[in-house]
Amino acid sequence: MNHGENNITVVDEEGNEQLCEVLFTFDSEEFGKSYVLYYPVGADENDDEDIEIHASAFSPSEDNQDGELMPIESDEEWDLIEEMLNTFLEEEEEN
Q1: What protein family does this chain belong to (predicted)?
Q2: For residue 10, what are the contacts with CB-CB under 8 A and spacing of at least 6?
Q3: How do 54-60 and 67-70 pair as beta strands?
Q4: What are the DSSP calls for 13-67, one per residue?
């Protein structure tokens, strides 16, 4: 995973690289992990479609230049992420 300004490059199971824009990141003390929510660059340019937002746990490298994305494994983590996303989207609508 590479960090640009707000972009990361995500490699899928087939080895295809996709440039994604970071929506936001947050840390969870409960799970002792950091999480990143992101979507494919350009997805927000098409107003007709809902943007598919992806989420992963990540562990930053020691120099914070890049890190490793990891799948989210539990329903409890998904519930937390959904709650954080809903809060984030509500705040965005208010602005």
Answers
A1: Belongs to the UPF0473 family.
A2: 1, 17, 18, 20, 38, 54, 69
A3: antiparallel
A4: TTS-EEEEEEEEEEEETTTTEEEEEEEETTGGG-TTS----EEEEEEE-TTSSBE
Dig out the tokens for 79 from the structure: 């519930």
Instruction: Please write the tens of the pLDDT for every residue from 75-92.
Output: 999 999 999 999 999 998
pLDDT tens digit sequence for 6-16: 888 888 789 98
- pLDDT for 4 equals 45
Put residue 15 in one of left, alpha, beta given phi > 0 → left and psi -120 to 50 → alpha.
Answer: left
CA-to-CA distance for 95 and 92, rounded, in angstroms? 5
